[in-house]
């Protein structure tokens, strides 16, 4: 949406960034005008975060890179200079001090003082206007740690507006938000756009891009691919630009256990924690992909954690290949061939300050010991190299820290760890959360391969398209109960309507629960 003088509010020209041995960005271009939402898309690892870190002053670009604001070249050597130029970036992981008040967070680094002491009264008064502008349900004196994620996000936006920011970058802002919270955020974004702020919106969610963006710029492999105007937006075009191939080449399920299911490989009987999960039972067949769907809070993850031994169950039994197994902790599950991939790979799955190879091998490290207690490093290295090739993990080498990888590649590393134990049953909790389209396709391919190898796979997902696309049949949970099943022999088809009817309680069978 060009301004009257045709000069963008922000222009990044010929931006490159080289790390040791890796060219992360190669002559990237980006233009954003005031009063527009520019969506920035690309696979994980395409360079979006690196480009934004250069804009924020966290990284220094290579020589020859240019940043212009209102057509004038500027130098951004550190985050404070970025703020001085009216640039604010709100990352997925919010950067707030939870023990401070809303006002203290808004003024953080720009505190009002009197006689060498923080003048809190002045700060409370000074941020009142911006809080009223955002129509927030809290006040300046509220402790930030007591707020929800959505409310904390509003504090971050309030801080940006209070600092007179004209360029606002939102990085995957709806990842932890409910549908209602997301809609409220979208309304705020439209309001800010009307106030002539340039908004750069980073998201993997196509529906959000369609809903909000005026233009879409796409990066691929560290290079600028192009920009699409709103009237030309289509999933086909965006995906082809992001991954370099047509949408028709993406994942299509090849295995089909519906007509000739293998024997029951796993059974849960009356698993319960006495609170969030009511007595729940189901069977999983060899070579089957079983989905577990349900609304947030339905008990899906809690059920998986009880089965895996991550949380203590109050009742129920687990059977693998017809034999009862006593699973009191995750090590018991792993010893019996049951692995669980957590929905929170960063907090509960990966050791972010360790290498990819160390993360891959940690589940089978005991088998690498040599006489005298030393590790067989060559064996671990060979295993990591094989996993990198098999799962197409994109990194300079298995020895780089896993924390430096994109979300999709981190997920592949975590998947590889559990594949090393040779599981009979693999539970995948939100396996493609925060993962780009290309990596999703590769993970779906892997799920398909595992099923064809005879592994029983359970997929827990909030994305109904994912459940419909990869699963042979699906259990639906509501209020801690398994309330129904779709797909499989003699059952209703796996459709969004059938799943939601059970998940939302359209059948009203559990009204008294």
From TrEMBL:
- In Pfam terms, one family for this protein is ABC_tran
Which UniProt key words apply to this protein? ATP-binding, Cell inner membrane, Cell membrane, Membrane, Nucleotide-binding, Repeat, Sugar transport, Translocase, Transport
The secretion signal range is none
ABC transporter domain: from which residue to which, for each copy? 10-246, 260-504
Molecular function GO terms recorded: ATP binding
Entry keyword Chloroplast:
no
The protein's name: Ribose import ATP-binding protein RbsA
In its UniProt entry, the species of origin is given as: Paraburkholderia aspalathi
Query: What is the name of the gene encoding this protein?
Result: rbsA_4
